[in-house]
Amino acid sequence: MRLYVIGAEGQVARSLREAATDAPGVVFGYGARPEVDLLQPDTLARAIDDFRPDIVINPAAYTAVDKAEAEPEQAFALNRDGARAAARIAAERGLPIIHLSTDYVFDGAKQGPYVESDAVAPQGVYGRSKLEGELAVAVANPRHIVLRTAWVYAPFGGNFVRTMLRLAAERDRLRVVDDQRGCPTYAPDIADAIIAVARRWADSGWSSQLAGVTHLAGPDALTWCGFAREIIAGSAARGGRSVPVDPISTADYPTPAARPANSQLSTVRLNSTFGVHLPPMTQSLANCLDRLLGNR
Ligand SMILES: NC(=O)C1=CN([C@@H]2O[C@H](COP(=O)(O)OP(=O)(O)OC[C@H]3O[C@@H](n4cnc5c(N)ncnc54)[C@H](O)[C@@H]3O)[C@@H](O)[C@H]2O)C=CC1
């Protein structure tokens, strides 16, 4: 099975690169800027023609949620138009595409986990651009799987876990939002899940039941404050500084982009359609902290 990944250094793309060393029977190709730039789709078309994959995977995105409010053109250029171009290039070559999207397509008003058929209502530019990307991918390529993930963290890249560890080293107390709830998702778990989804697809062949949106997120829902406390406790257990984490409200921490109060994702479809189950948050966070704090 040959998988072509757009991007190489993002949290998910780099995790796929790492997973490649432990994925028998899978040959990976990658395209990163400047050679492959989704804003110049010809570069992607050439790279795909060279590599000849069985499946294209698109984790590349404009992911700066707050900055997107000030530069919507850039967000839409990549998250909608770039996504459409990648799906079309795959479709023109008879290839399926696995595309990554976000929990921020929801408004957060629901009580409990969101399922794939729930109404979408993004609160900001980033969420709107990703939602329009989902729709554009579906129109451009009927053989698509959109995997909506959430609250992504990894031992590398810009993410909440690394920010909390840095702040804990600099400050005596942390104040973290306690009225937004979501599912932290470890990028290496996303990579394993993408490979499992691709294998399922390759082994049993395409069926239209696979198409559409599937939620791919960690099984545990927490608030940012709750997650921060887990991170600090895990860090302290590995010799890091232990600092108190005080709960604050979203109103106490205004940001340019509004975020959903609840974006917990149900993974029932991921489990039943693809047979994929992500590890518990405690296990994945421990793996991340072990890598970050040098315990392995
Ligand atoms: N980071 C998060 O918390 C969440 C991410 N997601 C989605 O998951 C996917 C993966 O996210 P991450 O790996 O965390 O993102 P990231 O921000 O770590 O990486 C983004 C990637 O996009 C690439 N990229 C940017 N502009 C490009 C261009 N013009 N051409 C080609 N590549 C370009 C970058 O080089 C980088 O590899 C994205 O679709 C994102 O929207 C969904 C929910 C939460």
TrEMBL record:
<dbReference type="InterPro" id="IPR005913">
    <property type="entry name" value="dTDP_dehydrorham_reduct"/>
</dbReference>
<protein>
    <recommendedName>
        <fullName>dTDP-4-dehydrorhamnose reductase</fullName>
        <ecNumber>1.1.1.133</ecNumber>
    </recommendedName>
</protein>
<dbReference type="InterPro" id="IPR029903">
    <property type="entry name" value="RmlD-like-bd"/>
</dbReference>
<dbReference type="InterPro" id="IPR036291">
    <property type="entry name" value="NAD(P)-bd_dom_sf"/>
</dbReference>
<feature type="domain" description="RmlD-like substrate binding">
    <location>
        <begin position="1"/>
        <end position="292"/>
    </location>
</feature>
<keyword id="KW-0560">Oxidoreductase</keyword>
<dbReference type="GO" id="GO:0008831">
    <property type="term" value="F:dTDP-4-dehydrorhamnose reductase activity"/>
</dbReference>
<comment type="pathway">
    <text>Carbohydrate biosynthesis; dTDP-L-rhamnose biosynthesis.</text>
</comment>
<comment type="function">
    <text>Catalyzes the reduction of dTDP-6-deoxy-L-lyxo-4-hexulose to yield dTDP-L-rhamnose.</text>
</comment>
<comment type="similarity">
    <text>Belongs to the dTDP-4-dehydrorhamnose reductase family.</text>
</comment>
<dbReference type="Pfam" id="PF04321">
    <property type="entry name" value="RmlD_sub_bind"/>
</dbReference>
<dbReference type="GO" id="GO:0019305">
    <property type="term" value="P:dTDP-rhamnose biosynthetic process"/>
</dbReference>
<keyword id="KW-0521">NADP</keyword>
